[in-house]
Each structure stands twice: as C-alpha cells, then as structure tokens.
Amino acid sequence: MFSGHFVLVLLFSGLLSGVFSQSFIRIWSGNRNSENLDLISSDRKILRDDNLYCESWRFTVETNDAGLWEEVPKRCVKFVQDYMTGNGYGSDSELVSEDSSSFAATVNISGDGKDAWVFDIDETLLSNLPYYKLHGFGSELFNETTFDEWVDLAKAPALPESLRLYKELLRLGFKVFLLTGRGEAQRNVTEKNLLFSGYRNWERLILRGPSDVGKLAEVYKSEKRSDVEAEGYRIHGSSGDQWSDLLGFALAKRSFKLPNPMYYIA
Ligand SMILES: *[C@@H]1O[C@H](CO)[C@@H](O)[C@H](O)[C@H]1NC(C)=O
Ligand SMILES: *[C@@H]1O[C@H](CO)[C@@H](O)[C@H](O)[C@H]1NC(C)=O
Ligand SMILES: *[C@@H]1O[C@H](CO)[C@@H](O)[C@H](O)[C@H]1NC(C)=O
Ligand SMILES: [Mg+2]
C-alpha cells in the first residue's frame, strides 16, 4: 500500500521582469525508507546525518505528512530507541497531557452527564514499551501471536502522563470512553490491565465486535464515536497515538495526538 514516493518540488517565479517564468526542480523521488539516500544527494547534510534525518523523519510521521509507513527506517532504530527510553517520549507526552488538561479546563461541564472524552488504549493509556523493547522498537514486522501473548499478560504499565490526565478529566466531571482496536476476545484482559495500571471508573470500554473485524481503524472508531454522539454525548476531547484515532467523522472538538514513532495503524 505504501507507494513510497515523495516528490519535493520547488517553484521559482520570475518577479523582476514581470514575466511569470518558472522552473520545477525535482530534488528527489524515491522510497524514503531505502538506504540509498546519501547516494542521491551526498552534499546535503540532512541525508548524511542520521540524527538530523531521524528528527525530520519523526516530524513527518507525527504530523502524518508521511501517511502510511510500515516500519522504522533501519538508520533510525537507535534514534527511536533513545527517544522511547530516554527523556524525549516522556517530555513530549507531558506537554500533550498539559495541553489536553488546559483545554479540558475550558469546557463547561453541563451537569447532564453527557460531556465526554475518548481515549485510545495502546500507546495512549497503556504502554507496550516493555514488549517493543524486546522487538526492535517497531523495526520488526508486527507479530500478532507474540503481541497477543503480551496483551494476555495484562501487565502493560500506564503512561504516567495519560493516567494523570485521565484522573483530572474524571475530577472535572467528564465521562470517559475507551475506544480500542483490540477485539472483544481481549475485553477481560484489557479490563484487568487497565485496573492493574491504575485506571478506574470509565463509562464504557468499546472493543471491535464481530461486525467491526476488517474495518480500517479510522472507520471503526468514527462509527463508534458516532454511536456515542447519537446517545446525546458531546465529545469534547479525544486522545490517541494514531491519526486513525483522531480523523474521520464524529470528531471531538479537540484531538490530541500522542507520540508514537514505533508503528502506524491505518
Ligand atoms: C462557559 O460558560 C461561561 C459562563 O457562562 C462562558 O463565559 C464561557 O464562554 C463558556 N465557555 C465555553 C468554552 O463555552
Ligand atoms: C511470530 O513469532 C512466533 C514466535 O516467535 C513465530 O513462531 C512466528 O513465526 C512469528 N510469525 C510471523 C508472522 O513472523
Ligand atoms: C470474561 O469474564 C467474564 C466474567 O468475569 C466471563 O463470564 C467471560 O467468559 C470472560 N470472557 C472471556 C472471553 O474470557
Ligand atoms: Mg494506540
């Protein structure tokens, strides 16, 4: 599905003469995940410096400029590892959490019990970092068997910044909906894990039922939000580490993207 083509076009316009002259310069077109970037333009610093390149790569995946991407580029595995296990991930999560709280504080809670916030679970409320530490930080192809074994352990820790936000939202009077791509078969272990890591008093846990199997996450999640809205809830905020948590229809008034440079779910 990933076409892998990225074309950067610069447009120069002739301004002085009043003649509209333009030339298109194709800097580069090719698979961005390929390892031959520096062959194409060895004089450009970004392509030689892994750290600089990976900072820019991370920008493009977090903003969704990159669209669907399938694995962490080989040259960025160490970068992602350092980000996830160092201070970067926590710091970014902290600021996202603070922005979310600031917005939540501006919402007028009506008192009818219909003011809602939607959370994704994996890499939003719960961290699967202990799993990904053993599986290349997203550089290995996703293995459903081993991942499900990890989920069944119900030992994923909370993202501390999300747990803090979650408690704050409950305190403010929001109803919290948990909307996950996990399936109904994982309901019990998911509840067990949420309780294990400190989450309490959610309004509803929504998982993929039989009729949701095979749907794109963006469609499935939009439909479920739409159902919640049809019950009269006002979805003020939505938190997720994937753009498919935050795009589509029946959108929250504000959506908050948490960092995740390890994987992309369409
Ligand atoms: C909340 O209510 C106050 C007082 O009615 C009003 O001034 C304010 O604009 C409202 N805020 C929002 C976000 O609707
Ligand atoms: C997933 O991991 C298991 C256990 O290591 C292995 O047997 C299986 O072949 C892997 N599946 C894929 C699709 O890689
Ligand atoms: C989940 O737990 C309930 C009771 O706690 C049990 O009846 C049900 O069979 C369990 N479901 C699964 C899929 O294990
Ligand atoms: Mg997630």
TrEMBL record:
Region forming the signal peptide: 1-21
Where do the TM regions start and end?
A: none
Q: Which SUPFAM superfamilies match?
A: HAD-like
Q: Which UniProt keywords apply?
A: Glycoprotein, Signal
**Which Pfam families would you find in this protein's record?**
Acid_phosphat_B (PF03767)
The Swiss-Prot or TrEMBL record annotates one GO molecular function as:
acid phosphatase activity
Q: Which InterPro entries match?
A: Acid_phosphat_B-like, Acid_phosphatase_pln, APS1/VSP, HAD-like_sf, HAD_sf
Family the entry assigns: Belongs to the APS1/VSP family.
Name of this chain's protein: Acid phosphatase
> What species is this protein from?
Tetracentron sinense (Spur-leaf)
